[in-house]
Amino acid sequence: MISPNLIILYVKDPAESASFYRNLLNREPAVEAPNFVAFPLDGGFTLGLWRRSKVEPQPSAIGNRGEVAFMLPGENAVARQYDDWRQRGLPIAQELTELDFGPTFVVLDPDGHRLRVCEPDK
C-alpha cells in the first residue's frame, strides 16, 4: 500500500512563495532551486512549490479547487493562530468563524492558494 507524502502547489515565483512559507511554517526548505522549493513537514510529509510555467504536463486550469489545511489541537488554538497570522498581515479570505466542524479561518498565499486552519476531527 502506498501513501501520499508530497503536496505540490503551482506558483508564479518559487522564491517569493518560499519566503512566504518560510515565515508561515517557521522552517527552512530542504530543496531550493530556481523552479522548485520543498519544505519537509512533520509526519514525513513535504510541501513542494513548483514554478507554474515549468510544470509538465501543463495544468488545464488554475484556481481555487482545493485547500491546504492545518489542524491545530487544543482549546483556542485556532483563535490564537488566527490572531498571530492576522498580526503578521497575512491576507485573510475567511475571518475566524464557527462552521459545522468547529472554529476555522482561511488565509491566502502569494498565489491565492487557500490555507485553512481548523481543529482536528474528534
UniProtKB/TrEMBL annotation:
Keyword Transport part of the UniProt annotation: no
PROSITE patterns attached to this UniProt entry: VOC
SUPFAM superfamilies according to UniProt: Glyoxalase/Bleomycin resistance protein/Dihydroxybiphenyl dioxygenase
Species the sequence originates in: Rhizobium aethiopicum
Keywords: Dioxygenase, Lyase, Oxidoreductase
Organism lineage string: Bacteria, Pseudomonadati, Pseudomonadota, Alphaproteobacteria, Hyphomicrobiales
Name recorded for this polypeptide: Catechol 2,3-dioxygenase-like lactoylglutathione lyase family enzyme
Domain VOC residues, every copy: 3-120
InterPro entries attached to this UniProt entry: Glyas_Bleomycin-R_OHBP_Dase, Glyas_Fos-R_dOase_dom, Glyoxalase/dOase/EhpR, VOC_core
Molecular function per GO: dioxygenase activity; lyase activity
Domain of life the protein comes from: Bacteria
